[in-house]
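[Meeting: bench + compute handoff]

Bench side (C.D.) handed over the final construct sequence. Compute side (W.E.) agreed to return the predicted structure before the next meeting so the bench team could plan truncations. Sequence as handed over:
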Amino acid sequence: MSIKSFAAKLFAARIHKKTLQWSSNPVETQQKVLADLIRQAKETQFGKDHNFDFIITFSDFAQNVPIRDYEELKPYVDRVVKGEENILWKGKPLYFAKTSGTTSGAKYIPLTKESMPFHIQAARNAILSYIHETGNADFVDGKMIFLQGSPILEEKNGIKLGRLSGIVAHFVPKYLQKNRMPSWETNCIEDWETKVDAIVEETYNQNMAVISGIPSWVQMYFEKLQQKANKPVGELFKNFNLFIYGGVNYEPYRAKFENLIGRKVDSIELFPASEGFFAYQDSQKEKGMLLLLNSGIFYEFVKADEFFTEKPRRYTIGEVELNVNYVLILSSNAGLWAYNIGDTVQFTCLKPYRVIVSGRIKHYISAFGEHVIGKEVETALQQAMENTNVRVNEFTVAPQITPKEGLPYHEWFIEFENEPENLEDFALQIDNAMRQQNVYYDDLIVGNVLRTLVITKVAKNGFQEYMKSIGKLGGQNKLPRLSNDRKIADQLS
């Protein structure tokens, strides 16, 4: 055992002890977080506008601070972007994480000197948690790669801005710098395909031990490695035993990855976003990710099926239940208040509080009242693939409301690595799994409102070409699993 790995184990034990302290007192921990946030933001414009001086309890907070999404918070954010101080949080932000996807164009999510350290600590603690549980620390002596956006930052009114992953690249601890890949120059390449080719060349002969990134883009890296080496990735990187990922569910990719790697490797799931680092997988044995209750974020939860009612109830951590689909609402030391990030979660454990990401409140199919969410389509596909050699590279689902003939249906666009022997039988298996999970969908099938889903095969690299055509190839960009319209479907048809 090297000195570095020995030190990592000692550090992991220390962090584990600290984690137990707050995770064993979840309600008290969250109450302290909310009180601290209110105290620090009393003198901001937002605090004055929302009576922070008079807020003592969560009930006070909920009465004074309505749930908002980015568009509704934008008037305040615009003032921050213009360079004004003490608007959402004290002083000015350190950075803006620039993302896309809103009706008004780019989103500018503030990162403050109080919030930024928690992004770094959470990523670090996820790895340390794995070390503490498994005792495996040998990988710290090998090379680590993080497939991410360019670290080149722009500037707007004196505040630097860029993709979150690019900003985080500036905070990699010194003790990881020698192990970290790719090089700074390669990381700065903007074109994703050129970047991946350069990463392949740099890492091909290295002792890669940890690989991290969004599965769909890591898959591209693995495929290029395999083409160059003419052997599985696991043979090329004999000490590669840990895959760290976030952004999407890994299960639909697992079989393909194991084929590309040539063996199984441990994995750690993360739940990061520009708005905060919310959770990480703290156990290889338990389902779900540990919700980070002591990281400058106060959480609220609204039941997804009540979210669009006039006054949905807002639950705190002590009131949530297992296996209920909640919209995640947060207030943070970055200056976001009762903010709807758009993700939905379900709790898999309440001691400690662990969650899975079940989908996006805006990414669903309910063209016929079926309320299908991302978790359901991913689970259905996974169940259909079990005990077969079928492998899927990527997929998305959309409703077909006006078919040329027959009843409407859900259309599944799938790019297969290995196709099923009988496509209609495979579609039926997925459909049955969907019906078991979603009673509304089952009722629509039984009532002859919908027919069995239809699979449309997508050509190899078809999804990559689609993402490239809309300028979202690589980085932190993700293909929506579900659409309630046919904007994506029409591009793939």
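W.E. noted at the follow-up: Residues 3-23 form the longest helix (21 residues). C.D. will use this when planning the next construct.
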